[in-house]
Amino acid sequence: MAVIVGILLVAFVAGVFGSMLGVGGGVIVVPVLSLAFGVPIKTAIATSIVCVIATSSMAQTTFAARGMTNMRLGMFLEVATTVGAVAGGVTAVLIDGRVLQAAFAVVLFYVAWQMGRRRGDIVPVESTVMPSTYYDPAEGRQVSYGVHGLGTGFVLSFCAGNVSGLLGVGGGAFKVPIMNLLMGVPLKATIATSNLMIGVTAATGAAIFYGRGYMDPYWAVPAALGILAGARLGPRLAIRLRAKVLIRVFEIVLAVFGVLMLLKALGVGV
Amino acid sequence: MSVGAGAPEKHVMVPIERMVSRILMIGIAISVTLMVIGLVLGFFNSQGMPKHVVPLADLPSLLRAFDPAAYLSLGLIVLIATPFVRVLGSVVAFAREGDRRYVLITAVVLAVMCLSVVLGRA
Predict the structure, then answer these.
(1) Is 80 exceeded by the pLDDT of residue A157?
(2) Could you tell me the residue range of the domain that residue A149 belongs to?
(3) Across the interface, which of B16, B50, B79 has its CB nearest the CB of A71?
(4) Disulfide engineering: A22 pairs with which of A43, A86, A191, A226, CB 3.0-4.6 Å?
(5) Residues 6+ apart with CB under 8 A from B117
(6) A213: which chain B residues are within 8 Å (Cβ-Cβ)?
(7) pTM
(8) Structure ipTM over 0.85, yes or no
């Protein structure tokens, strides 16, 4: 019982941060389950994929209602991420857990470093490619932008999908920098669109994990319920906060868990 | 960038946005209901909380027997299925808009998702 309450609370926090940053909460759930609760890594990943789906579905009810999600961009990149996820989901069953953890840490460090190099959000440029407009209450104005770099974004999204299939992070940690840094999408629209996409990628992965019997309701159900509650709050925070603050939080969350995961992969007791 | 000082904070959803958020909302509601039923059943179960999901084939009979694992599993299945339905709904929404390119793109996404389920069963 105490364990279930613990999972609920951890998942709630993961739901808040995951939906607020567009990374799906798997970034928090995988390390906590595997480090603090000693859950086998593949069960932890299966649980986290469920969490990513829950985050995505719940967060989207807020982001879509605000018009922040770029539906066409999301759909376009989903082609790449789903194909990548199928490849990754199949590989995950074949690869050693230690290697997965080390790879996880490397991905986290890289993304934290990339985001941290920039002080604020990108300057949006209007164009006719997948144009979108939303209202940013933190800035107190409408933001209009167009997308560029579709080819590069598509190729890198394939890699993001592959990582998500492998590690259960939903690839959101990858998708946010891809759209924000390379495709000219303002951070909040990036977070909203990433939130939409990670649900699709995770659902494909989850179907595979369910079929292989790695899904464990003892962990997955309380985690999903906690996530759903947290993902009600997260998007509201993301919409209210300034982009500069979101970037800082993004960086810190990724770096901390990168360190924890690396220690685990190296066999150091944490 | 366009700047509107008195910008309206209330966004009017376009059809695709309305379709997506409605499907997700319904999926979440069904899933949460099943999970809560499963947790309550598991709470009164002598064997404690189940540790394994139920294979699809055993689901109907175990649901009738009020097996907690069956309700928890079905709750997870509905949660996992929701994005599939969302993509299907997007195909319909783009078709209604007459946007053929995005009907095709979204249909490809759905096809790949279904392929992954087939691979997972193999």
Answers:
(1) yes
(2) 2-265
(3) B16
(4) A191
(5) A204, A207, A208, A211
(6) 52-53
(7) 0.89
(8) yes
